[in-house]
Amino acid sequence: MFLISNPVQGIATVPNVQRPSELIALFGGSIGGEPGCIPNYIIQDTDYTNYSVVFPCVEAMGYNIQFAWILTRCKGLEPDKLAELEANLARAGVDVSNFEKVDQTDCLFYTDN
Asked: What GO biological process terms does the UniProt entry carry, in alphabetical order (predicted)?
């Protein structure tokens, strides 16, 4: 498990407008896909306001590496909503027993304001 304690910047493009939840994401030039490759960052679920559930899939050193994240705009989600999202991921074949809650007590949050 990698926990990143500083901001990560990236670029995401939608290669096929018929499938807007499938993105090609590049993060700092070292993590993610390259332009022209197949989508590597799948938005599995979102309410467009509070959370997004992301399932990235990348090839690295000959291995297929898969992750799943529940990303929130605020510090955490209501327990019922979190349980629902984890259940959805489990139905999709993701082993959520390895999920770790990130302590956001002293995290800095960046806004456009």
From this structure: brain development; lipid transport; tissue regeneration
- Alpha helices for the chain (secondary structure H): 79-91
Does the domain at 10-98 match CATH 2.40.128.20? Answer given as yes
Those residues whose C-beta lies under 8 Å from the C-beta of residue 75, and which sit 6 or more positions away, are: 104, 107
pTM of model > 0.70 = no
What local confidence, expressed as pLDDT, does residue 29 receive? 56
DSSP state of 30: T
- What is the number of residues in the chain? 113
DSSP structure class, residue 88: H
Apex 30 CA angle, 11 and 34, nearest 5:
55
